[in-house]
Design a protein that fits this description.
Elements (H helix, E strand, L loop, with lengths): L5 H7 L7 H4 L5 E5 L9 H7 L9 E5 L10 E6 L7 H15 L4 E5 L4 H5 L2 E3 L2 H5 L20 H14 L1 E8 L1 H16 L5 E6 L17 H22 L3 E6 L6 H10 L3 E2 L2 H6 L4 H17 L5 E6 L7 H17 L3 H4 L4 H11 L2 H8 L3 H7 L16 H18 L9 E6 L1 H4 L5 H19 L5 E6 L9 E6 L4 E6 L2 E6 L9 H15 L15 H4 L4 H13 L1
Parallel strand pairs: 3-4, 3-6, 6-7, 7-12, 8-10, 8-11, 9-10
Antiparallel strand pairs: 1-2, 2-13, 4-5, 12-13, 14-15
The structure holds 1,6-di-O-phosphono-beta-D-fructofuranose.
Length: about 550
């Protein structure tokens, strides 16, 4: 018998809220189709690659006047990619809808991510099994993984496993890369007349899987609130001791939504936004200059402490680094399979092999970095060919370079302060927290709605629940074709169809909010202390969504 914490016991009892149209029952829905869609870019190439699933309409559900019966269906579900709070509730919502539609329906969970469907590793869900995981964080119900589903052999194996279990639909819960897998699998299943549908669910704490129909990916709300709590606590510590500069790297592999949201929640002294760095073509040197200037100005008024928030993906957005990393990715795709590189006698030898293959200007940039960062840049790419930025200690790189700059300023008499820095990385801490009420409701709705899409025979669609700043009963449920979000990008040295990441918009209301206040926050300590996520208590504390969602939605509503 497992021992449960008091909060676990109370959260198991929470009944997530559903949009009104889903409350009347999964068999009482009517589907309304919009007009045909296009991919965000590279339309011809995407259409050619997704001949069977391209161009489908956006769909919305509304209550039907009568209810219909539903045939028996077996469904498989996969948790894919990085953990995000609420994944268990997506599965719970899917399970409840499926059983409501027909109690003979079965839900299978593939174990360990997409590899589960290839290797035929699965569990069958039951009430007792699901009930232990309702409203809990983590993906441990079936585990997750980052296997990329893209080869003919993988698809054939998946088909065999689905046939064996009588599965007619697969739900993939994942981020941009995982939903790219979902789109590829959906297309292959249609092309080969298998009759198996594929539906995606928008997951990622990074918040970069969004568009007009997907207002936010799940997990972003809880993760950013967790980081907000931690940053707030550190701000109080810094403001008490007044002796450290805290450099906090915040997760978010590429886009800076997480760092931006955490900054709006806490109002630190410095916040870097990768998209701004790229747009303004800020070199590493100019970033160091910008941060050093604030540190020096604060020291002049006796403040030798502060908080700097740095997005995890920063390094890939600094122009000279971006060029070097892109060149390095292509080289590593070859070197990872080259035994003379893999078995090189020392790290230094690896550095020189890499430098000899990089273009001259990129080799110069690579060579200028501290050995620690050079080594971290050589770490294995993820299965999608991305540098694993969570392993690159950008916060330490910045501290080292700023220290050196301050020593120079001290030597020429233009700085007289003390610089003592602490580094932090907040990432994994936020990915498995108990989902906030928002994420608990949103995820349950996404899963429930996914079964609605299956029931209407759709494939290659992403479950969509919108109007999220209104009460849950007013949320709008439906689906969007995955191909609508795709474009061509270079991965592992080759052009591939992928879901386009939604980066921070510099002309959007969220970044503008930071831009408008950052000088004030830099010098006058306007720290906010959000505290821990609250699950029970006044709605103004427990049910508020993120600043990002509120600002983006209020702009949309004004423009509507
Ligand atoms: P997803 O895009 O799969 O949701 O993962 C996002 C993320 O949490 C990033 O923020 C982070 O850089 C990365 O996963 C870390 O990956 P891993 O868990 O493999 O270390």
């Amino acid at each position: 018998m497992k021992t449960l914490s008091p909060l676990q016991i109370e959260r198991l009892k929470y009944q997530p809220k559903l949009p009104q149209c889903l409350q009347n029952g999964i068999n009482s829905l009517e589907m309304v189709e919009g007009s045909a869609t296009q991919s965000v870019r590279d339309q011809e190439q995407i259409q050619d690659l997704f001949k069977n699933t391209y161009g489908k309409p956006v769909v919305t559900f509304k209550n039907a006047s009568s209810s219909s019966s539903s045939e028996v269906k077996n469904v498989g579900v996969i948790l894919s990619g990085g953990q995000a709070p609420g994944g268990h509730n997506v599965i719970a919502g899917l399970y409840d809808a499926l059983k409501q539609a027909n109690s003979s329906n079965k839900l299978y969970g593939f174990l360990g991510g997409p590899s589960g469907i290839i290797d035929g590793k699965y569990v069958e869900f039951t009430d007792e099994f699901i009930d232990q995981y309702r409203n809990t964080g983590g993906f441990d119900i079936i585990g997750s993984g980052r296997t990329k589903l893209e080869t003919e052999e993988q698809f054939k194996k998946s088909l065999e496993v689905c046939k064996k279990l009588g599965i007619s639909a697969v739900v993939i819960i994942g981020g941009d890369d995982s939903n790219t897998n979902a789109a590829l699998l959906a297309e292959w299943f249609v092309k080969n007349n298998t009759g198996i549908q594929v539906i995606g669910c928008p997951k990622t704490i990074d918040g970069d899987l969004k568009n007009e129909q997907i207002e936010i990916s799940f997990g972003f709300d809880t993760a950013t609130k967790t980081y907000g709590e931690l940053i707030g606590n550190i701000q109080r510590d810094a403001n008490s001791a007044k002796k450290y500069w805290h450099f906090i790297k915040i997760m978010g592999r590429s886009a800076s939504h997480v760092a931006l949201e955490a900054a709006l929640q806490t109002q630190p002294n410095i916040t870097l936004i990768s998209e701004e760095v790229e747009e303004k073509k800020m070199s590493l040197d100019s970033i160091i200059g910008y941060m050093t200037d604030i540190i020096v100005r604060r020291a002049e008024i006796g403040k030798n402490f502060g908080i700097a928030v740095v997005p995890e993906g920063l390094i890939e957005f600094i122009p000279e680094m971006k060029s070097m990393i892109s060149n390095l990715n292509d080289i590593m795709a070859v070197l990872e399979k080259d035994s003379s590189f893999v078995n090189a006698s020392s790290v230094k030898e690896k550095f020189s092999i890499v430098e000899s293959r990089l273009e001259a200007s990129n080799a110069k940039v690579y060579n200028s970095l501290p050995a620690l960062i050079k080594e971290q840049l050589l770490a294995d790419r993820d299965p999608h060919g991305n540098v694993q930025v969570s392993k690159i200690e950008t916060e330490k790189l910045l501290i080292e370079m700023i220290s050196a700059r301050l020593s120079e300023l001290k030597a020429n008499g233009s700085y007289n302060g003390k610089f003592s820095a602490q580094s932090h990385f907040f990432g994994y801490e936020g990915r498995c927290a108990f989902p906030s009420n928002f994420d608990a409701d949103y995820c349950y709705s996404l899963g429930f709605n996914a079964f609605g899409l299956i029931n209407f025979g759709l494939t290659g669609y992403l479950s969509s629940v919108r109007n999220l700043t209104s009460p849950a009963s007013e949320w709008i449920a439906g689906g969007i074709p995955l191909t609508m979000m795709m474009n061509m990008e270079k991965r592992h040295g080759e052009m591939k169809p992928v879901i386009q990441k939604a980066l921070v918009k510099l002309d959007g209301p969220v970044f503008k909010q930071l831009e408008q206040h950052r000088e004030e926050w830099a010098m006058n300590d306007r720290y906010l202390f959000p505290g821990a996520i609250q699950y029970f208590g006044p709605s103004c504390v427990c049910d508020v969504t993120t600043c990002t969602l509120q600002l983006e939605r209020s702009k949309e509503l004004v423009n509507a």
